[in-house]
Specification:
Shape: globular
Distance between the termini: 35 Å
CATH topology: Non-ribosomal Peptide Synthetase Peptidyl Carrier Protein, Chain A
Largest sheet: none
Number of helices: 5
Structural class: mainly alpha
CATH superfamily: ACP-like
CATH class: Mainly Alpha
CATH architecture: Orthogonal Bundle
Length: about 90
């Protein structure tokens, strides 16, 4: 099963996150499944991760709380934290 079919279609958040991670880390999008560990598989340090978070927040005009951001390891975790941030923004 490809990555696109693991999430409800269309999941524009996941598609956009995959593209953004591809642009930031130069990782082929076909490697970016929901359980892709950003910190371990790409050896992303804290500064790189903050840059990714800033890019995500700017792209979606949302703020992921520091408490949530510190626990993000996977693309799924980033997706879920962003979805929560967008949900809070809508209220």
């Amino acid at each position: 099963m490809d990555v696109e079919n693991r999430y409800s279609a269309p999941d524009h958040l996941m598609v956009t996150l995959r593209q953004l991670i591809h642009e930031e880390l130069d990782v082929p999008t076909d490697r970016l499944g929901p359980d892709f560990d950003l910190r371990e598989e790409m050896d992303v340090d804290s500064l790189d991760f903050v840059e990714i978070l800033v890019a995500v927040e700017e792209r979606f005009d949302a703020e992921i709380p520091d408490a949530s951001a510190s626990s993000i390891r996977t693309l799924r975790g980033l997706h879920d934290a962003l979805a929560d941030a967008l949900s809070r923004r809508a209220h």
